[in-house]
Specification:
2 copies of one chain form a homodimer. Chain A is an alpha+beta fold. Chain A has 4 helices and 4 strands; from the N terminus they run βααββαβα. Chain A is 33% helix and 32% strand. Chains A, B: GO terms for molecular function: monooxygenase activity.
Chain lengths: 108, 108
C-alpha cells in the first residue's frame, strides 16, 4: 500500500529556488532509481528558508529506508531542523478530494 | 502559481482509519468547495495517533485562508500539536520526479 513520506527542514534561502534547481538536477534523477520510489514534490519557501519534499513510496519499508538515508544527505548539505513523517493514505477521503492515492500509479 | 499546504497534528488513534472515513465524508465534500482548492491527500498514522493533509491550492492566499480556518476546525475536533506550512513547488525538479506540480490540473 502506497505511503506518503513528508520531509521538511531549514536551509539558507540562497540555496533554494533557481540555485537548487541547478544544483539538485542530478540528485532528482538519482531519486527516480530508489527502491519503492513513486513520486516527489519538491517544496520550498525562499522567504522563510524552509524546504523539503512530499513523496509517494510503494510501501512503508522503502519510505523508511529512504528517509534514513536522505536525512543524512540533506544534513551534509546544510539542512537543519529536519523533520520526517511517514503516513498512510486514507484512500476513500483522498479520492473524494481528487488527491493521488498511489493506486494505479506505476512505480519508477 | 499552485502551492502545497502541509498540515499535521496528533489525534487519538481511535478517531482515525475507518472511523475517520465515516465521520469526515461530509467534511471532505465541503473541502472541494473551498476557494482555490485543487486536491487533498488525507494522511494518517494509527500507530502514532498522527494525521493531517497534503493539499494543492491554486495560490498562497487561498492556502493561507484555508489553513487558518482549518486549524481552528481540527482543534475543535480534538487535534493537538497542529503544524501547518505553505510551500512553493520547485516545478523543474518536481517534473523530473513525476510529482504533481499543479500545472494543467483544474481547480475543483
Amino acid at each position: 500500500m502506497a505511503v506518503i513520506l513528508q520531509i521538511d527542514f531549514t536551509m539558507p534561502a540562497e540555496m533554494l529556488g533557481e540555485n537548487l534547481t541547478e544544483a539538485a538536477r542530478g540528485l532528482a534523477e538519482s531519486i527516480n532509481q530508489e527502491p519503492g520510489f513513486m513520486s516527489k514534490i519538491w517544496t520550498e519557501n525562499t522567504a522563510t528558508g524552509e524546504a523539503g519534499g512530499i513523496y509517494h513510496f510503494a510501501d512503508r519499508a522503502s519510505a523508511q529506508a529512504y528517509m534514513e538515508m536522505h536525512v543524512k544527505r540533506v544534513e551534509a548539505m546544510g539542512a537543519k531542523n529536519i523533520r520526517g513523517r511517514i503516513f498512510d493514505i486514507n484512500e476513500t477521503l483522498t479520492a473524494i478530494n481528487y488527491g493521488q492515492t498511489g493506486k494505479g500509479q506505476t512505480g519508477h
